[in-house]
């Protein structure tokens, strides 16, 4: 019998053909469609400012280690070092921990190595500017792999596992050194109160310099985190000729402690190979220098493991996760993990008719939503627990709107684990986080948005091993307990760490007042949805609470001022004093008066926040004057040159009031569904998708925010949009002719778009084969057992949505 070759499929029996297809399907290398630089630049080519602030380097889905280069700031007023990698900075190190997509002062950039060709003067190992290196040519990166070439001729290649990294240096002829400066971290701009700092540590050389262990402790960063400690174990493929530890006085300008004015950066004092260097009582800077003879091999590799628990665990990760010294073995296993655990769950046509730009947007977006949060299960140094442990919710304010709903269907196992981890944080530390990083809650930008995440999971039926009695109790803490004031210089008025800082007003007045609190409008809006979230979970867990929280969820109506006029529209959210009167003096809802912590609204103007009431669109439309006015008011959001508020890097290049580069507006383009004008939702949202999301370095409109931006695009490409805290999805219009997605417990969601090449307006929809006239559906329709959504598309807008409008389950009148 002839063995048929794959490809000669006409010779295969149908059963065998099926098997071959299955094998082939499993073998598609989807990782090739990921552009790891999507979001790496902003509107000014070659600069990170206004861009995605993404991490570029080696990582696993939700992994602890994110291995990549750290760089200097070309200009502090436009610097964004948050992901470590920047297009224009000079390389200061390869380090093991990073965030992706965050704004504000950087966090992490920890446990470094820096390869050097000389350590002679003027190089000072305690002064990165004396040895940092420009790069030559373009960096290259693919899933699980990164490569750069330094000006001094050293090539760096790297990859990562979940808790470790492998770095391969190719040195030019001559001296070869690797510096480990434990006091290295990604700095904030000078004077930034939220910058992070090195606190101390220890480094011990082992095995005649072939290995080293120790720990470093760091404090601060955007979330004002307490000190936390990272343990490490590093080893080299080739024993160095010499290895020395060093120490030096810490002159980093940590507020109130050190200052450079005391005489500048000192020179290191060397120890020797048997040394253990410790930071001691004055938190000295410490590190080690490993040097190889000029004759030694040009290729030197290093494997480094990290742990939040111990050096032993850090060492065990290297042993269990990177058994080979071949870089490509780790790259290969990273690619397999991403393909298997992430990319292969979404299948679209990849044949000659496929729009490969869209295919790359799809798989790149899937990549970027899986970099954070970090699954630190087994890595909890704070308390004993059998529950999973997660960090780097950075932040829920960004990802509650549609990222977590994606995890719900796409990564149910991870998602259940995340929620258990969140509840365990509440159980042992008192509050659910809104942001969390470095084992520390903070900051809270608006409401307590873990409430929304938990409610979203709850109403969609996620149970598993989640203890919902405790889940609901955690949410009740947010709703009932005023968090103690952390006196954060960013906003001294109330806690920025956790909970609802303005809860006192909320409980007493039913809204957040302008005279007693900051961010009065945006916090009222967010607390309203938070309490709706409580009512949703109370419905199952404590029915006697449900009515109370539903009533509280209408709090936004108390700050709706029907007399405020702007751009010919009447009725807006407005600042209100605690005595119950509105402040009408000079209020203009097109402005937020700097849009930060002390403003009326956070990162968005009241015009935008006045649309963000997903639980009671019915009342909102009524307040705005009915469907027609609502329609034209929404239209105005999309008019160019209407924005007057300068949003800085949060609004780069955007002149409409709607700013899809910032999360509060994520649902706004879809709101036409609530007046049965679905065609306009399609037109508006698709317009934003095409205009602002590109398979390019400037590929997302502003910070990717831990993948929040990418998740918005993912839903847009699927042609559906989730209404957070409700088991409801709005129907839009898909970007692919055919898409199969493995969801839930190995179910299949299939979304087809017949006629897509003619146009993207919906002509008709069938769900599970049934004609559909509503422009929305419920979770159980296709998301629990799988199902099909068949779109018939065409070039003409059509009023096909004649069924009932999407629900307003929080409908209330105050
Ligand atoms: C990078 O280093 C080069 C050469 O030392 C220097 O001219 C340049 O200003 C540095 N750039 C940054 C962003 O630090
Ligand atoms: C740094 O950037 C700011 C803001 O764009 C600009 O005004 C300033 O001139 C830049 N400084 C340097 C030294 O290029
Ligand atoms: C590098 O040196 C500069 C100047 O001393 C300092 O501001 C920065 O924190 C150092 N570290 C890094 C990683 O850039
Ligand atoms: C490792 O993989 C990369 C990309 O897959 C390839 O370019 C390179 O040649 C490989 N290197 C070795 C040593 O196999
Ligand atoms: C989706 O699944 C269906 C049913 O198994 C199959 O016929 C179709 O080819 C698949 N489409 C894609 C793009 O994988
Ligand atoms: C490519 O895939 C699409 C969608 O599955 C299908 O309709 C089309 O016939 C395929 N084209 C080719 C050339 O195979
Ligand atoms: C692919 O889709 C993009 C939108 O993402 C569109 O701009 C482009 O024209 C399409 N390309 C082709 C060849 O149709
Ligand atoms: C859930 O948590 C509550 C409160 O801590 C506890 O009494 C209960 O036994 C837990 N339920 C389960 C199934 O573990
Ligand atoms: C408001 O209405 C006036 C009078 O009809 C008109 O001149 C003006 O252009 C309108 N403004 C906007 C923003 O539409
Ligand atoms: C309410 O408080 C504001 C600000 O303190 C004050 O200007 C206003 O007169 C007060 N109104 C009433 C009715 O007390
Ligand atoms: C009322 O609002 C205006 C404009 O926003 C502001 O300048 C003023 O301080 C506010 N009045 C009070 C009493 O807070
Ligand atoms: C998922 O289902 C497919 C067929 O529907 C089956 O081939 C595959 O083994 C299942 N995978 C798991 C992990 O259960």
From TrEMBL:
Hydrolase as UniProt keyword: yes
Entries under InterPro entries matching the protein: 6-hairpin_glycosidase_sf, GH-type_carb-bd, GH92_a_mannosidase_put, GH92_N, Glyco_hydro_92, PNGase
Domain Glycosyl hydrolase family: start-end pairs: 313-795
GO biological process: one example: carbohydrate metabolic process
Superkingdom, taxonomy of origin: Eukaryota
Keywords recorded for this protein, A-Z: Hydrolase, Signal
UniProt GO MF annotations: carbohydrate binding; peptide-N4-(N-acetyl-beta-glucosaminyl)asparagine amidase activity
UniProt cross-references to Gene3D superfamilies, sorted A to Z: 2.70.98.10, alpha-1,2-mannosidase, alpha-1,2-mannosidases domains, GH92 mannosidase domain
One cellular component term from this protein's GO annotations in UniProt: cytosol
Glycosyl hydrolase family 92 N-terminal domain mapped to chain residues: 33-307
Keyword Cell cycle carried by entry: no
Signal peptide range: 1-25
Listed name of the protein: Glycosyl hydrolase
Organism: Aspergillus ellipticus CBS 707.79
């Amino acid at each position: 019998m002839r063995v048929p070759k794959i490809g000669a499929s006409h010779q295969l029996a149908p059963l065998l053909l099926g098997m071959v297809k299955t094998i082939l399907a499993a073998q598609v290398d989807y990782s090739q469609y990921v552009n790891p630089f999507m979001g790496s630049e902003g509107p000014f080519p070659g600069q990170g400012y206004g861009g995605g602030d993404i991490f570029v380097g080696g990582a696993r889905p939700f992994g602890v280690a994110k291995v990549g280069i750290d760089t200097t700031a070309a200009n502090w007023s436009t610097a964004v070092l948050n992901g470590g990698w920047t297009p224009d900075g000079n390389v200061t190190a390869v380090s093991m921990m990073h965030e992706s997509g965050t704004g504000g002062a950087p966090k992490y950039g920890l446990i470094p190595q820096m390869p050097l060709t000389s350590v002679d003067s003027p190089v000072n190992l305690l002064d990165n500017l004396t040895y940092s290196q420009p790069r030559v040519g373009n960096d290259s990166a693919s899933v699980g792999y990164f490569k750069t070439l330094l000006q001094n001729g050293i090539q760096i290649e790297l990859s990562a596992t979940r808790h470790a990294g492998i770095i391969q240096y190719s040195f030019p002829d001559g001296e070869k050194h690797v510096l480990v400066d434990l006091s290295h971290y990604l700095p904030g701009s000078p004077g930034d109160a939220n910058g992070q700092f090195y606190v101390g540590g220890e480094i011990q050389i082992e095995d005649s310099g072939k290995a080293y262990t120790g720990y470093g402790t760091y404090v601060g960063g955007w979330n004002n985190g307490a000190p936390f400690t990272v343990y490490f174990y590093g080893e080299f493929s080739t024993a160095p000729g010499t290895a020395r530890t060093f120490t030096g006085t810490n002159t980093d300008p940590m507020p109130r402690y050190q200052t450079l004015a005391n005489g500048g950066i000192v020179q290191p004092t060397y120890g020797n190979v048997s040394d253990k260097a410790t930071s001691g009582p004055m938190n000295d800077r410490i590190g080690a220098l490993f040097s190889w003879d000029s004759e030694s091999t040009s290729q030197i590799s290093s494997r480094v493991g990290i742990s939040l628990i111990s050096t032993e665990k850090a060492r065990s990760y290297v042993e269990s996760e990177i058994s080979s010294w071949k870089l490509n073995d780790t790259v290969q296993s990273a690619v397999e993990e991403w393909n298997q655990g992430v990319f292969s769950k979404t299948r679209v046509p990849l044949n000659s008719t496929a729009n490969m730009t869209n295919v790359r947007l799809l798989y790149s977006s899937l990549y970027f939503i899986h970099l954070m949060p970090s699954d630190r299960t087994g890595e909890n140094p704070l308390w004993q627990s059998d529950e999973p442990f997660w960090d780097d919710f950075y932040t829920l304010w960004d990802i509650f709107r549609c990222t977590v709903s994606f995890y719900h269907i796409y990564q149910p196992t991870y998602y259940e684990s995340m929620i258990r981890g969140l509840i365990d944080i509440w159980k042992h530390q008192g509050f659910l986080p809104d942001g969390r990083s470095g084992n520390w809650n903070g900051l809270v930008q608006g409401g307590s948005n873990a409430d929304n995440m938990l409610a979203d999971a709850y109403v969609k039926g996620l149970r598993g091993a989640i203890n919902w009695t405790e889940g609901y109790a955690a949410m009740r803490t947010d709703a009932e307990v005023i968090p103690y004031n952390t006196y954060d210089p960013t906003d001294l008025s109330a806690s920025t760490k956790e909970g609802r800082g303005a809860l006192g007003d909320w409980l007493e007045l039913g809204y957040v007042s302008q005279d007693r609190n900051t961010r009065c409008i945006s916090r009222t809006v967010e607390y309203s949805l938070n309490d709706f979230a409580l009512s949703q979970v109370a419905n199952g867990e404590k029915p006697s609470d449900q009515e109370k929280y539903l009533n509280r969820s209408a709090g936004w109506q108390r700050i709706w001022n029907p007399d405020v006029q702007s751009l010919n529209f009447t009725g807006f959210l407005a600042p209100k004093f605690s005595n119950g009167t509105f402040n009408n003096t000079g209020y203009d809802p097109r402005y937020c008066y700097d849009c930060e912590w002390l403003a009326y609204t956070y990162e968005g103007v009241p015009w935008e926040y006045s649309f963000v009431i997903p639980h009671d669109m019915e009342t909102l439309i009524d307040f705005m004057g009915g469907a027609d006015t609502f329609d034209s008011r929404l239209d105005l959001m999309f008019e160019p040159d209407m924005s007057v508020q300068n949003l800085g890097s949060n609004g780069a290049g955007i002149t409409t009031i709607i700013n899809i580069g910032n999360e509060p507006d994520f649902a706004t383009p879809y709101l036409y569904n609530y007046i049965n004008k679905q065609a306009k939702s399609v037109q508006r949202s698709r317009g934003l998708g095409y205009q602002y999301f590109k398979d390019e370095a400037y590929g997302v409109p502003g910070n990717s925010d831990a993948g929040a931006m990418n998740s918005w695009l993912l839903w847009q490409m699927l042609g559906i949009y989730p209404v957070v805290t409700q088991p409801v999805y709005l129907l839009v219009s898909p970007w692919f002719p055919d898409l199969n997605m493995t969801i839930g417990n190995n179910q299949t969601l299939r979304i087809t778009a017949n006629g897509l090449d003619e146009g993207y307006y919906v002509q008709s929809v069938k769900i599970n084969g049934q004609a559909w006239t509503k422009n929305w559906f419920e979770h159980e329709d296709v998301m629990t057992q799988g199902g099909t959504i068949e779109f018939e598309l065409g070039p003409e807008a059509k009023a096909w949505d004649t069924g009932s409008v999407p629900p307003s389950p929080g409908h209330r009148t105050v």
